[in-house]
């Protein structure tokens, strides 16, 4: 596939980097004045709003500019591909764009509405078989292709989450082991008194369960707060409505499902190890 | 003696020491990966641009290379103007457009490809891996009936072409005939790896005049110019002179362009900063918790050490050294685990559809390794500050009394 | 004079009311003396021992150790004094569990930066003195109570202190083992070491040259053997 053009020549002339050449004009001149829609960033870069007029040209030297009135300012749909980019868009009527660009009757795509949308895949396949110099996609195909980067980012973040989960799990197990070992003398006293190992282990397991539940609830709350902070920060930084972090019920259940048995098992194993050693009855000298 | 005691203290609770070191190793791995990610793509891009070797770019206003169809007319003349500037050692134009190709005499099914028009004698944008480079000797007119090209492997496989094969190429397709119109004949000189190919991209390169001829362009278009500074020359000085000559263009040094893509890379830098901070927090909490519990358990021992003649600062040093020792234990396995994970993470990210194949997100730099090691060691040492303070303020008499009763 | 208390008192501030552990105690311990301190629990015996060892400071009065008033010294200087001038032996032994017997004896010499050859020779000599040269590589968990106390005594003697302070050294030992420790202490006293000993054991106290009886933080009686 050829590398797809990201901006038309005309849009480049409008969106000329840090120093846009198109200037707002205070008065509408004689002759036809076309209409243009600008994205929020484009309007901000040009310093215009709805009702203002701009000049547009196909080259940076502004030969033979044409005048357009800003019919509206819109916010492009949030797109992960656009994160971090200072993209600026303008929408023209097709005939205006053709005239400005000098490309008559040449477009980059057709959009087709089918009488029977359920046959989209079959129509695509049939057209593709005879296609020369073009490709055919259903709306779902395009959505899948467009979300390719997003899918990659999701996979990456999931992989990172597993690493972070591993670190957190080891931390949890270490804490539980330390907690039990801290009570070495207490366990020794209970054993000397005649309390059975089973009773002691059950008691410790219940304690660990309560701690793990409380920790899980607190962790979920902290996660919600952190997620809110992350979204607020990135949305402001990248001026986007994209959601970067979401703590769903599934995420909370996964985290608690992992933490509970880990925490309880760690405490139980540590206690069992302690109780089965003879040194426990001698206490710590 | 401090090191001796620290070693023995860590060795006597092997399970606990192992668990703590394991936790530190995993968080070290995460921190290392984030250090690699923070600068990886930029390092990778810098490396590729350095391999290309041309440190200047002249572009149509408002974009990055290959970001649009905008061209600079009279590309060779512009390149000559650039090369004549004091401080510029070399300059050449590059034009990219779409061509449609099909095997000569084969099934009529055109394959579209990204065509790069670039002087084969001075190009650094691809590396021939099979066959030969394009011989620059014959002038364009003499080669008009058979034009040498290099293809990338993907295009060669799509066409079933090998070095020596003949292809038909055109800038237009006839949808009715289902093939190319007014096709030129190309001969495959070699198969090459292109530095900025996307994963599914089909690319070819030929001399720019040949490409312009095939595309029916008489304006000698250039997508941008590549330039090389003379040793010791000042980029800003050249930029200033160029801006006076050709204000309708944009002049960039490669380093400046890298900062333009920073916005797109910033997500990964922010991400790595947040996650790096979290991993340091885990390191801190792990050492803090372990050492605090350990000091509380060893109050009696600490009191007797003080009674025997160990000064308070030495006790502080003992606790800090233990924290540092835990981090040292975890460092090598953590870095190794991080390096292993980085390969997997890089494989995920580089599968992104819009990314050139030659780029990586996780690039080893000595700086990342040193930064990671220092951060882990310093954090683990600092985490021992509170338990060390607890140990230093041990009341000897009261503690010994409590131990006995 | 190795150590001397001059009208020393010790007050412990407590939330439920101050505790006066020692009141106006004056005594001298000359070089070579073996002094036993006896009295009911809470009478201030261990407090006096701690003042003598510069582990704690008097609330009023003075304690002079090796000619230096301890209250004039900072924590670092007092610690240095303990390292080289005073040896401690405790009821609970307080050996470091992760070190062998030999390493426990080496510890004070390591801190005092005694050269390696000298400290290793000294450690071996001390273990032989206490009859445990053959157990040098055993950890405390592998030793009996009496053996641990003998290692603790060897450790206390590592830096050739002028003064040995022993707080209930036979408190955790059976009679026979306690007698063995008592014989060891007698041998040390005969070799010229100054010993101040806290004990509930009259038989052990009887081996000392003199015994001070304390009650409610004051010296009430002094007896001689």
Features:
heterotrimer, A: 285 residues, alpha+beta, 3 domains, five-stranded mixed beta sheet, 9 helices, elongated, disordered N terminus, disordered C terminus, C: 225 residues, alpha/beta, Rossmann fold, six-stranded mixed beta sheet, four-stranded antiparallel beta sheet, 35% helix, 27% strand, globular
Can you summarize this structure?
The complex is a heterotrimer of chains A (285), B (405) and C (225). Chain A has helices at 9-14, 40-46, 94-101, 120-129, 139-146, 148-182, 184-193, 197-238, 249-275, and strands spanning 24-25, 34-39, 53-56, 66-74, 90-92.
Describe this structure in words.
The complex is a heterotrimer of chains A (285), B (405) and C (225). Chain A has nine helices and five strands. With 285 residues, chain A is α+β, with helices and mostly antiparallel strands. Chain A has three domains: 93 residues, no CATH class; 30 residues, no CATH class; 132 residues, no CATH class. Chain A has a five-stranded mixed beta sheet. In chain A, helix 8 runs antiparallel to helix 9. By secondary structure, chain B is of the alpha+beta class. Chain B has two domains: 191 residues, no CATH class; 186 residues, no CATH class. Helix content of chain B is 52%, strand content 19%. Chain B contains 13 helices and twelve strands. Chain B is elongated and about 105 Å long. Chain B starts with a helix and ends with a helix. The model of chain B has no long low-confidence stretch (mean pLDDT 87). Chain C is an alpha/beta fold and 225 residues long. Chain C has a single domain, classed as 3-Layer(aba) Sandwich (Rossmann fold). Chain C is 35% helix and 27% strand. Chain C contains seven helices and ten strands. In chain C, the strands form two sheets. Chain C has a six-stranded mixed beta sheet, sandwiched between helices. In chain C, helix 3 packs across helix 4. The longest helix of chain C is centred in the last third of the chain and has 16 residues.
């Amino acid at each position: 596939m050829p590398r797809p053009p990201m901006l038309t020549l005309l849009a480049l002339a409008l969106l000329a980097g840090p120093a846009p050449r198109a200037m707002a004009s205070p008065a509408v001149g004689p002759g036809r004045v076309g209409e243009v829609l600008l994205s929020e960033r484009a309007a901000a870069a040009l310093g215009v709003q709805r009702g203002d007029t701009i000049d547009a040209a196909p080259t940076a030297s502004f030969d033979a500019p044409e005048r357009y009135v800003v019919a509206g300012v819109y916010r492009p749909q949030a797109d992960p591909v656009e994160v971090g980019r200072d993209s600026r868009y303008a929408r023209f009527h097709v005939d205006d764009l053709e005239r400005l660009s000098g490309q008559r009757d040449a477009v980059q795509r057709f959009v087709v509405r089918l009488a029977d949308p359920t046959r989209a895949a079959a129509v695509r396949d049939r057209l593709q078989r005879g296609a020369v110099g073009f490709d055919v996609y259903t709306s779902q195909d395009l959505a899948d292709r467009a979300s390719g980067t997003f899918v990659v980012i999701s996979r990456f973040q999931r992989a990172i989450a597993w690493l972070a989960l591993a670190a957190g799990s080891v931390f949890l197990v270490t804490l539980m082991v330390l907690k039990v070992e801290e009570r070495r003398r207490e366990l020794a006293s209970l054993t000397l008194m005649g309390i059975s190992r089973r009773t002691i282990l059950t008691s410790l397991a219940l304690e660990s369960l309560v701690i793990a539940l409380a920790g899980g609830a607190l962790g979920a709350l902290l996660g919600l707060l952190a997620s809110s902070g992350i979204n607020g920060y990135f949305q402001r930084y990248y001026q986007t409505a994209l959601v970067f972090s979401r703590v769903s019920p599934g995420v909370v259940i996964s985290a608690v499902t992992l933490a509970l048995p880990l925490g309880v098992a760690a405490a139980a194993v540590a206690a069992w190890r302690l109780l089965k050693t003879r040194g426990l009855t001698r206490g710590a000298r | 003696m401090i090191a001796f005691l620290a070693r023995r203290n860590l060795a006597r609770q092997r399970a606990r020491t192992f668990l703590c070191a394991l936790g530190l190793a995993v968080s070290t791995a995460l921190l290392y990966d984030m250090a690699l990610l923070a600068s990886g793509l930029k390092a990778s891009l810098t490396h590729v641009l350095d391999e290309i070797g041309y440190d200047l770019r002249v572009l149509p206003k408002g974009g990055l290379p290959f970001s649009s169809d905008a061209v600079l007319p009279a590309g060779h003349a512009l390149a000559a103007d650039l090369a004549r500037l004091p401080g510029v050692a070399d300059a050449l134009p590059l034009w990219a457009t779409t061509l449609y190709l099909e095997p000569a005499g084969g099934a009529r099914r055109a394959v579209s490809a990204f065509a790069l028009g670039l002087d084969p004698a001075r190009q650094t944008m691809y590396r021939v891996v099979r066959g030969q480079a394009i011989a620059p000797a014959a002038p364009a007119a003499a080669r008009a009936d058979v034009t040498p090209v290099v293809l990338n492997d993907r295009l060669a496989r799509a066409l079933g072409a090998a070095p020596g094969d003949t292809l038909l190429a055109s800038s237009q397709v006839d949808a009715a005939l289902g093939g190319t119109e007014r096709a030129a004949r190309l001969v495959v000189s070699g198969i090459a790896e292109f530095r900025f190919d996307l994963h599914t991209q089909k690319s070819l390169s030929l001399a720019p005049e040949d490409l312009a001829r095939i595309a029916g362009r008489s304006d000698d278009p250039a997508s941008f110019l590549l330039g090389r500074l003379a040793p010791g020359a000042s980029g800003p000085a050249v930029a200033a002179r160029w801006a006076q000559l050709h204000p309708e263009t944009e002049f960039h040094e490669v380093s400046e362009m890298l900062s333009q893509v920073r916005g797109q890379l910033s997500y990964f830098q922010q991400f790595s900063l947040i996650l790096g901070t979290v991993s340091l927090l885990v390191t801190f909490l792990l050492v803090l918790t372990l050492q605090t519990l350990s000091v509380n358990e060893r109050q009696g021992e600490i009191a007797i050490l003080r009674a025997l003649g160990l000064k308070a600062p030495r006790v502080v040093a003992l606790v800090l050294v233990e924290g540092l020792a835990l981090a040292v234990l975890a460092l090598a396995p953590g870095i190794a685990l991080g390096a292993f994970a980085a390969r997997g993470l890089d494989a995920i990210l580089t599968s992104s559809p819009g990314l050139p194949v030659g780029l990586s997100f996780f690039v080893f730099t000595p700086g990342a390794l040193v930064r990671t090691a220092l951060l882990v060691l310093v954090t683990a040492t600092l985490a021992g500050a509170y338990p060390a303070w607890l140990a230093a303020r041990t009341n000897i008499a009261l503690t010994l009394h409590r131990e006995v009763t | 004079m190795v150590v001397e208390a001059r009208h020393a008192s010790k007050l412990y501030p407590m939330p439920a009311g101050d505790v006066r552990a020692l009141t106006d105690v004056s005594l001298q311990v000359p070089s070579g003396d073996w002094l036993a301190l006896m009295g009911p629990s809470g009478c201030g015996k261990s407090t006096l021992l701690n003042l003598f060892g510069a582990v704690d400071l008097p609330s009023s009065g003075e304690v002079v150790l090796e000619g230096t008033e301890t209250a004039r010294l900072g924590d670092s200087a007092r610690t240095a004094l303990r390292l080289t001038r005073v040896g401690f032996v405790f009821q609970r032994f307080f050996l470091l569990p992760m070190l062998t017997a030999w390493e426990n004896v080496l510890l004070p010499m390591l801190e005092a930066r005694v050269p390696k050859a000298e400290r290793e020779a000294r450690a071996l000599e001390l273990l032989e003195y206490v009859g445990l040269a053959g157990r040098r590589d055993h950890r405390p968990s592998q030793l009996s109570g009496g053996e641990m106390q003998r290692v603790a005594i060897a450790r206390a003697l590592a830096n050739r202190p002028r003064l040995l302070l022993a707080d209930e050294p036979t408190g955790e030992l059976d009679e026979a083992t306690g007698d063995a420790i008592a014989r060891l202490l007698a041998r040390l006293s005969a070799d010229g070491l100054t010993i101040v000993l806290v004990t509930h054991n009259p038989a052990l106290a009887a081996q000392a040259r003199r015994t001070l009886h304390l009650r409610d933080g004051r010296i009430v009686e002094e007896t001689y053997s």
